[in-house]
Amino acid sequence: MPKTAAMVSEEVREALDTGVPVVALESTIIAHGLPRPRNLAVATELEALVRAGGAVPATIAVLDGGAHVGLTKAELERVAGDPGMRKFGHRDLAPAVATGASGATTVSATAFLAGLAGVRVFATGGLGGVHRGWTETQDESADLRLLAQVGITVVCAGVKSILDVPATLQRLETLGVTVIGYGTGHFPGFYLASSGEPVDWTVDSPEEVAAVMRAKDALAEPHSSLIVANPVPVEEQLDPALHDRVLARALEEAREEGVTGQAVTPFLLERLTRYTDGASLEANLAAVRGNVRLAARIAAAYA
Ligand code: PSU
Ligand code: MN
Fold it and tell me: How many domains does the chain have?
């Protein structure tokens, strides 16, 4: 594999070359964040939402050591259906490429590969961040540091509510990652419309986001990301009381069962889905759909 060669699909390459807007999508949410077989339907739906917004989707994953930016239908089916798909953060990319391994990419690996390919806008559900109990476990997602090193605009419903949200916002400030609320003065809460934490900046249109991106370009600030924090609509959020109740139970179980490392986030998401009879999954999907739609509009406004 040549030095900087992500394997960019023909459609994505052509879009990038001709100024057609492109939206990057991650694959960990597909392979490890959603139950099979619904995950394939969601992956397909998200790509269709990007297209409906006039942009080209670039779902990112590593297959047999190839770092793909833009997947074929068969490749997407493999990411969703193959139980052997691993979970790769940015630091896993080199050994994965070297050994011919296959895995879904997290926000950190996806943002990195998107940046390498020249894709400027990325949509996901909720970012990783600083975990509750971080003073003991030191568990902080690699998503944060990576977003401080690549110049991408990531549209998300904040960070996952299973995390320590105030601590995560502190880290983002330290790391120099810009956070703007989309249509809100509060940082969203992933399954919930609001985390209760304030944000310093609010924008109300894709054009305003594109203007911030251009200002970053003009400031020669390519190596830090812009987080566009887009809340799930209140009508589609998880009931906050139910959320707090089941999250406390899931966190307790993660502790009891000794779940650590990369397994923590998928474990908690799965327990929440189970204990809410699927309501958390619906709120998660509503958030992701909204983010993908907005990302396409932002990519078009910036293009
Ligand atoms: N958003 C979702 N579901 C997910 C994720 C994001 O709605 O499963 C994934 C992203 O890939 C993110 C990862 O990078 O969870 C964080 O994992 P960790 O906490 O182990 O860094
Ligand atoms: Mn972690």
Answer: 1
CATH number at residue 237: 3.40.1790.10
d(CA 149, CA 176): 9
Q: Per-residue pLDDT tens for 100-140?
A: 999 999 999 999 999 999 999 999 999 999 999 999 989 99
Q: Give start and end residues of each alpha helix (H) in 118-177.
A: 134-137, 142-147, 165-175
Give residue 4's pLDDT: 55
Q: Is position 119 within any domain? A: yes
List the chain residues with pLDDT less than 50.
Answer: 1-3
Cβ atoms of 229 and 183 within 8 Å: the answer is: no
Give the alpha-carbon dihedral of 171, 174, 176, 181, to 10 degrees.
50
pLDDT of residue 253: 97
Host domain of residue 140: 7-302
Ligand 1 mean position, distance from CA 136 (Å) = 21
List helix spans (H) across 101-236: 107-117, 134-137, 142-147, 165-175, 206-218
Residue to substitute in 26, 90, 237 for testing ligand 1 pocket (most ligand atoms within 8 angstroms of CB): 26
Of all protein residues, whose CA lies closest to atom 5 belonging to ligand 1?
A: 29
Tokens describing residue 132: 């509750």
Q: Is the pTM of this model over 0.90?
A: yes
Ligand 1, closest atom to CA 142?
Answer: 21
What's the distance, Cα to Cα, between the start and end of the chain in Å? 30
Exposed e or buried b per residue across 124-163, where buried means at least 16 C-beta atoms within 10 angstroms of its C-beta: bbbbbbbbbebeeeebbbbbbebbbbbbbbbbbbbbbbbb
| Residue positions annotated with a catalytic role | 26, 160
Amino acid at 110: T
Please give the C-alpha separations between residue 76 and each of 26, 59, 199, 263, 292, in angstroms, as whole numbers.
11, 8, 36, 22, 17
Given the DSSP bridges, would you call strands 103-105 and 56-63 parallel, antiparallel or unpaired? antiparallel
In a domain, 2, yes or no: no
